[in-house]
Specification:
This protein has one helix and two strands. The protein has one helix at 34-39, and strands at residues 18-23, 28-33. The chain is globular, with a radius of gyration of 13 Å.
Amino acid sequence: MSEEITQVKIGQPVPDFELAVYEPENHGFGKRSLADIKKEGKWTILFFYPADFTFV
């Protein structure tokens, strides 16, 4: 699997991406994309943590 790394700078639009997410309503994992969130018209904060991150 090859992943493309894109560098986004301040003021540039964020390219669409898809992530595996935990869905508490379903008690399982699913996938979400930035395009899906934009379609819902929700405010979005993108948070990237460069080290390990585990669910609390």
